[in-house]
């Protein structure tokens, strides 16, 4: 059957069906309506976030150097100065994603109109479409944030990100900065890198292909497991910030028992203990 065999009505129905399969490009939202957005696909859209889940910057204890560096880098970008994409990597629960959101809030409190856009790792193939929307809004500056970024064997999503970070004809828009968090320094398991090295015809080239993505981040900020003193200091900071008075000996004993039952110490464990402590003392957070 050829196109001439269809009636005009049938051709219209076919055209309408094709438009539904391939919808028109997403329209940019009102960026003045919110300070934060989440990128969704199917269909593409930027959904505004009315309230961002975050903690205050001064409550992030034990990561002073990373806090200072990331805040300075973000301020430079918000003020139209050169700044680097950043990879926050390391121990679980040590405040990597909390730091990104807290720094964003701090920069806004300093009077800079910086938006934050969250992107899921699974949506990396749509990254160019998202950047097209953000590039079309040059009067705003955007912090593009991908939490818990990592790649498994045969995962090709990282190639969608490489050209955006450092390469390609278009590259990263001037009004967009990219921050990512990961438990892995090179964004992929060590055994995956070692397998590439051992099985490839040219081991060094195979390894370089896999780790070159992390090299495209200008800032690498490492997060390491906290000491017991730092863990207790985090909890004391939460108590002071929320006005919860408790005997020091009781606090220390209960906090140490809590982390022992969890088998780990981290900022996340400290907050979970404080949440339990606040609930037992009738304190609303």
CATH-defined architecture of the largest domain: 3-Layer(aba) Sandwich
Q: With helices defined by DSSP (H or I, 4 residues minimum), what is the helix count?
A: 10
Mean pLDDT: 84
- Domains counted in the coordinates: how many? 2
Strand order of the largest sheet: 2-1-4-5-6-3-7
- Provide the succession of SSEs: HEEHEHEHEHEHHEHHH
- The helix content is 40-55%
| Residue fraction in strands | 5-15%
What's the CATH class of the largest domain, please?
Answer: Alpha Beta
Give a short account of the largest sheet: 7 strands, mixed
Low-pLDDT sequence parts: none
Cα shape: elongated
Task: Determine Rg (CA atoms, Å).
Answer: 23 Å
Output the structural class: alpha/beta
CATH superfamily assignment of the largest domain?
P-loop containing nucleotide triphosphate hydrolases
Distance between the termini: 68 Å
**Total number of strands:** 7
CATH topology descriptor of the largest domain: Rossmann fold
How is this structure best summarized?
The protein has a seven-stranded mixed beta sheet.
Structure description:
The structure is a single chain. The protein is of the alpha/beta class and 285 residues long. It has 2 domains: 31-223, 3-Layer(aba) Sandwich (Rossmann fold), CATH 3.40.50; 228-280. The protein has helices spanning 8-21, 64-78, 96-109, 127-135, 158-166, 190-199, 203-215, 228-242, 248-262, 267-280, and strands at residues 36-40, 45-49, 86-90, 114-118, 141-146, 176-182, 219-223. The chain has a 7-stranded mixed sheet. Helix 2 (64-78) packs across helix 3, helix 6 (190-199) runs antiparallel to helix 7 and helix 8 crosses helix 10 (267-280). The longest helix has 15 residues, at 64-78. The radius of gyration is 23 Å and the shape is elongated. The mean pLDDT is 84.
